[in-house]
Every structure is written in C-alpha cells, then in structure tokens.
Amino acid sequence: xxxxxxxxxxxxxxxxxxxxxxxxxxxxxxxxxxxxxxxxxxxxxxxxxxxxxxxxxxxxxxxxxxxxxxxxxxxxxxxxxxxxxxxxxxxxxxxxxxxxxxxxxxxxxxxxxxxxxxxxxxxxxxxxxxxxxxxxxxxxxxxxxxxxxxxxxxxxxxxxxxxxxxxxxxxxxxxxxxxxxxxxxxxxxxxxxxxxxxxxxxxxxxxxxxxxxxxxxxxxxxxxxxxxxxxxxxx
Length: 235
Known about the structure:
It comes from Candidatus Onthovivens merdipullorum. The protein has 235 residues and is an alpha/beta fold.
C-alpha cells in the first residue's frame, strides 16, 4: 500500500485535487457536508464528504509539480479505487483574451518535463489529454453557471523561475492558453492506468498584458467560480 497516503483512507470515485493542502481544507470546510479528514500524511490533506446536493466527492492536495502529482494521482488511481481526478488550481495566461479571473478547461498539456520518458517511446512524443467526457461535462456545467471559460491546451512547466524570460512566447505563438506545473503528470497517469482526468484552472496572473495578479489571499479563498464548477463533476 501507499507510503504517501493513509492506508485506511476512503475516497470517492471522483477526487478534486488542488495543489495547496490549505485549499483542500478550505473546500472541505466551505463546500462539503458530512466530510471527514481521511489522510494527512506528510501534511498533504485529503477529505471525503458530500456535495450539498448529496453526491459523494473527495478533495486532496497534490503538492507542487509533476513529480508530486505523479505520486499522489498514481496511488489514488491504482490503490484507492479512484476513477476521476480533476486538478483545480491557478495558472498564468499566455493569451491576451484570457484574462485574470477567467477559468480554463484544459484539453491537453504540453511540457518540458521528462515524465513520459518512462515509456521509452524511441523518439516519439506523447500528447497527454484530458478525458473528453469530463471536458464536455465541465463545459456544459460552466454555461449553466454563467462562467467566462476558455477551452484549450495548456503548458505544464518544470521551471517556475525561468532564466529565459521570453520562453513563454514560443508557446504563446502556438496557441497555448496558459501555464501551470502539474497537469502533464496527471494526464499521463490517467492514460497509463485507463482512468479519467481533467484540469480546471483559474487565471491568477498573465504574461500577455499588464493586468494585476490575484493576491495570495485571493488565490486561497476567492476562487469561487472554479470551486463551484469543479463540484458539479461529482457523480
């Protein structure tokens, strides 16, 4: 069994996965009923409860970066019977029409990560994608909620403080909507294990204009649109 998640933890079929443990705690305390802390190993908090309309759902942090979400998503899929993992988090926009505060529903993730090298594809390049049924459900639900959403590809970077300050422009020209640090690993694990994954992101800052960034407090507590949309994915 897992050395990273409580062996007795019980998870719903669908897990929401923010990066920050405190964000997982915030979602459980403010959006779930009858919730229970099911794991806190290494300070990574996980909760299982019900949405306010009675559907079972779990929320658990992933930590930062592909290696961290790679471990936790693999174990949830492989050892705890989880079928769907929906990453929720923040990202930086690469496109002028994708504004701070908007929501991105991801279709795929490009990356500079080496995570796919494990498959020894002999020079081939894996293109990990979100599950289409989850994309469609999230998009339809976003319209019901009246949200301003963008649907498209993102970039998962292994580097937060990049020496090349213009590097983003290469991806910007290719139509990549924004950048974060985890989805690539999650999508690969879902493909490998024949499970389903999606990433829903709130734009917290932008490379494409002079819009102000979300504050640290807003990042943790004021991402209500993304949370509400993610919770509609419970089965």
